[in-house]
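Continuing the series of single-chain predictions for the mutant panel. This is the parent chain; the variants come on the following pages.
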Amino acid sequence: MAKIKPFKGVRPPKDLVTQVASRPYDVLNSEEARVEAEGNEKSLYHIIKPEIDFAPGTDEHDSCVYDKAVENFNMFQNKGWLVQDEKEHYYIYAQTMNGRTQYGFVVAANVDDYMQGRIKKHELTRRDKEEDRMKHVRINNANIEPVFFAFPDNEALESIIKKVTAGEPEYDFVANDGFGHHFWVINDDKMIQQITELFAQIPSLYIADGHHRSAAAALVGHEKALANPNHTGEEEYNYFLAVAFPASHLKIIDYNRVVKDLNGLTKEEFLNSVSQHFIVEDKGNEIYRPNRLHNFSLYIDGKWYSLTAKEGTYNDNDPIGVLDVTISSDLILRDILNIHDLRSDKRIDFVGGIRGLEELKKRVDSGEMAMALALYPVSMTQLINIADTGNIMPPKTTWFEPKLRSGLVIHKLDD
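Parent structure:
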């Protein structure tokens, strides 16, 4: 059962929140962060991407960069740009995109739940990326950025969301990403206790986005437990920062592919090979978007095509075999284009659906890429099914938007 607790959040005063809050560390590179933080000494990028305080080209993994992170974190607190709440709270964080709002509980999630598999994952992690975030958590002794969780819908928790969000938010702003960000502090002790008890009845939490942050936060907590001879399991380091959304609030968007060449084939030979396993329909010059599971969109040589996987090319009873990313990876990328490792092959790139199918067209029309493949998005039901069966999704399967804004609240590991 999911063990969570309230915590004394470290967060910006209301009038500074838009200056402090930032995009997550992993959605932009150092130079983009440098540009976004320009002229803003209060930007969280000075803590989560502190290489921006050094000369361009400085290695973001240099020890001086991690030292700068903690120096800046301390400075933010000393200057009152980040202030710790006096009592433990839960918080509600909501995001609005395209007129649709999703509401999540900001909680301290349990390290043991992660280590024992009650917090379930659907992606593999890379050790180098884990180690980078572990260093960041260790040196700051805090989870600066939250992890993005989902949980099965729960009527009582939904009712608490409605009750809390009927009141005035603590923060309410539209960021430069065009998305609305809204944040409430839950003060009522009875409600706080109720939230803890309701989550204790939920069998599992699911990592939607932030697998490396989850692993890093949990592993640092685990390290601290092993190093403490008087460890009880109730210390603050046994918990890490997460925002947990009811599954029905979340919408996964498409994650598409672009490929540099056709593996020596002409366009006609490529389409002929594709037609062995797919019904191919010429859709002309107008952008074609996949409209259902097992339907794909192909853009090549100025034309769009609908590809529908033929019966027998997929297994709807297999949590991995049913995925369109599996079908396209096996039957097109591997068998026709000779791309076997999506993580390392330099001939393929990936485009989040937030950029639109126009981005696919642009990259092919420019000559940079030979073809583009758009996929129908994975559902939350599929994601939960994969995590529940202990399976791992193929690389680059899910794209969640909007991303959680960093800097709205931080969790210290020593209270």
